[in-house]
Write a structure and sequence with these properties.
5 helices; transferase activity; Arc Repressor Mutant, subunit A; 107 residues; DsrC-like_C; Sulfurtransferase
Length: 107
């Protein structure tokens, strides 16, 4: 099994043990994807982690978009903005960076 910063990841790059997550792992995943993390990325990553902690599920893109719009405003709660941050999918890539399981419904 592959590893990132000493933590095991599955064949799609998601953490095997969610407790292994830390910011260094997140930064390495982003670097591997060619993404330079900004404050805007961290806002979404932290939102995803809080959402998961509350609901014990990673949000699908539609749920994520609506929830971010509610919390951060419509300028950030839309697909265009989220895909600009996470080009491989705000649900899938965002959750991977956040150390969460792959959202249900993601291919």
């Amino acid at each position: 099994m592959a590893q990132i910063c000493g933590a095991e990841v599955d064949e799609e790059g998601f953490l095997v043990d969610l407790k292994d997550w830390n910011e260094d792992i997140c930064k390495q995943m982003a670097a591997d994807d060619g993404v330079e993390l900004t404050d805007e990325h961290w806002d979404v990553i932290n939102f995803l982690r809080e959402y998961f902690e509350e609901y014990q599920i990673a949000p699908a893109v539609r749920v994520l978009t609506k929830a971010i719009a509610k919390r951060m405003g419509k300028d950030k709660g839309n697909s265009k903005y989220l895909y600009s941050l996470f080009p491989y999918g705000p649900g899938k890539q965002g959750c991977r960076f956040a150390g969460l399981p792959k959202p249900t419904g993601c291919i």
